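Thread: glycine complex, take 2
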Amino acid sequence: MIVISNNEGKSGIPATASMLAQGKPGLDAVEAGIRLVEDDEEVRTVGRGGWPNLLGEVELDASVMDGTSLRTGAVGGLQGFRHPVSVAREVLERLPHELLIGAGAARFAAEIGAEQCDLLADHSRAAWQRWFDAEVSEADRGNWPDVPLTRYCHNAVDPEIGKDTTVFIALDANRNIVSGTSTSGWGWKYPGRLGDSPVIGAGSYADSRYGACACTGAGEMTIRAGTARAVVLYMKMGMSVERAVEEAVNDMRALKGGLINRVTIHAIDNRGNHRVVAVNGLPGNHYWFWTDGMQAPEARPAELIQISERAPQAKKIAMTVYTA
Ligand code: GLY
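Output below.
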């Protein structure tokens, strides 16, 4: 048994580890852990308390994958519900579909009785208002929100502002491998922007025959590189988890243009080995790790690999201003 989560998984991974130790199914354990992170308002890019989009609305993305059936469930741009990971789980359980977005996802969530919630916490509302007051022109304020948002998207906040998405990958007592993700995505994103968290194959992938991978950071990059699926496919082709992650990092080196930012790749294989690499990461980047025999999950440093000279610092100023 093994479970790995990123730094933001801190409030959820003890529950996941405990459930795995009791022999509970990996998917239940991962969903339970992610729900706790979604409830933790100190985590500023997951669930209630997450950063809003350019319009000041919190849009949540989440996914789960069962690596034994290769079934997935995901929601994108879901507004007004406390636990997107559980709505994603119900997509897997109840529908012949894998991904629901926007109004359809909200309709489904209401239909299954998912808990409703005002996702915009006071600190997020205040930060958004500071951004609005500082960045939006007087003319646009008068017509808001019926203004072109594209120019403000370039003033959007670095995805690292609130640290990150949460991702969990686990191997349970019955050798099922699963993954789960949840995020409010990039703060001040263009409305409707989906990151990699609900995109199976980009932000997460699990296959009980080989392993699992889940990513945090700039989802734009892992969508382009198909990172999570690639890591598992490289393992299928015979690479160790170490080599598979290395190869996925090489794929990122090939990305030209667009957003080049930070991505952390978390991967496990079906024998309980793992590797976590922070691409363009900063010292201090760590993840949580638990395997059977350990009393409690422990924090470990991610390996840092630099692929870009221009590690994106451009929006740091915005981060400082709007989140103070
Ligand atoms: N990795 C999360 C996102 O890009 O939204």
